[in-house]
Amino acid sequence: MNNILNSYFVKTHKLEISITIIAIVLFLIYFIGATHVFTRFPIYRAFMQSMPFFGIIAISATFVVTLGEIDLSFPSIVGITSLTFGMLLTSTDGNFFISFVLATSLGMFAGLINGLLVTKIGIPSIVATIGTLYFWRGLVNVISQGSGIAIVDVADGTWHHTLFVEKLFGKIPAQFIWFIVLTALMQWLYRYHKFGNHIHFVGDNKASAQMMGINVDLVKIIAFVQLGFFSALAGIFTMYEMLYFWPTQGSGLMLTTLAAVFVGGTSVFGGKGTIFGTFIGVLIIGSLESGIVALGLSGFYVQFIYGIMITAAVTIYALIQRKKN
Amino acid sequence: MTEELLKLENIYKNFGNVKVLKDVNMNIKKGEIVALIGDNGAGKSTLIKVITGVHRPNSGKIIFKNKEVKIKSVSQSRKMGIEAVYQERALCDQQELYRNIFAGREITNSLGFLKIKEQRKEAEKILRDYIGFTSKAITVDSTIMGLSGGEKQGVAFGRSLYFNSDLIVLDEPTMGLSIQETEKVLNFVRGLKKENKSAIFIDHNIIHVYGAADRFVILDRGEVVGEFNKDEISREALVQKMIELHESGKIKVEA
Fold first, then answer.
1. Beta carbons of A183 and A275 less than 8 angstroms apart
2. Which residue in B88, B108, B145 is closest to A207 by CB distance?
3. Range of the domain at A218
4. What CATH number should be reported for the domain whose range is B4-90+167-248?
5. What is the number of other CB atoms lying within 10 angstroms of the CB of residue B147?
6. B198-202 β-sheet, strand order
7. Which of A116, A196, B167, B191 has the greatest number of CB atoms lying within 10 Å of its CB?
């Protein structure tokens, strides 16, 4: 036992192991407290259906948080890109390529603006992205005039609908498979690509990174741009699932998404993070609401338990960190 | 006649309205160790950051290996053969040692994915051959956080040697080090000469500087106010110059 605890893998993966244990304990509680629900498949199908919508953004946001930055504008980027996607898909009579390329390009453009405000103008990201949060949501309201867009006629039954949200073997939602694939890809970029390496160095110590020849501004800009892209992608997934655009789309994602990143163990101070942790964070945060209700507690407990989970998790990480120093 | 490696001509650098460097002229020959001395705020750090591409001068010429160059970035100066070991050591605390050695010039495949094995292997070589770390507690996977000041300096030196540079720029390399560690660092600086490498070296401690350098350039409020070869001036005279500089605000140099 002692050998295992002192092994290299355990020493270097304390965060990941802690978060996995927390998730296992949580699911054991669900299982014991609501056996009749958690021994059947539908609850898991519901999880797999809904988690990817914010999970994809959480994975992508882990890059920005590792930089020591934050982006609060992604819920509105989801809104504006979904609106764009819905308008284009209906007006082109279901031309997926045009709609997809333009909507994701707009997402990247919104990310670019965030990146430029932070690096070239020098506004702290928490402030800059509050500005763009209101800007893009405001634009959604102005353009949509408060009404939604139904895409059911141009999307339902198409190959792209199948590609995004069809159930594999009638059971596994396609978006969940995409979510797993994207997580694996992003993990690879995060740990084993030059870009991910630079993200860690810039987040750790901007001045040192600069002196080591890393283009700090460019790294930050790309991080915001990819978050814009994945926000758009998450919006498009949601559209295919719901077959409808509504003007508040995305606005409920902020807290669950960021909570998943922080519960997952990525440091608020930058320089250290884990994509795997965010993935587990998504499983935890995404299961809490249904889990709590299934346990027989009223929905009023949901936020209260979110609060306990998040505070407990970040406290554990702070203690691990302090011990290291 | 030894060959000139780097020559600075009429370098000016302003930060907003503050003139940090005013008409700086200096040169470094091959195999020469030049010490840059002066009070805090004299412009020493700015000057070396102009050489390493962190800052761009407002005007003036930089001639490196007999060619005029514009150094626009750190990666460019590195490609030319200029390596820096900064006062802040330029290491990132939470990252592994081997990643720190290769940060900004990772060994990658054509898609930009890191060759981790190769980086670790090379880093091990650096630890063994250039730094001489014998402590088993430090491996290429250690994070910088757990290293002592001297060990950090060792990593920064090892890195600069590994990349086979012609000019090594050392910004306060002995700051915050114990006496033993300082001795190691000074030995390292003297050792550069044997390999026919040149160095610019900033240090507040005249005794350290005198022991390690061939030539001294005194900087005061952005201007070069004196320049001596080691055989022209004794240690005591150099200390005396610095005291005068400190007291009068500026020294007149008749050399």
1. yes
2. B88
3. 53-254
4. 3.40.50.300
5. 21
6. B82-85, B167-171, B198-202, B33-37, B215-220, B223-229
7. B167
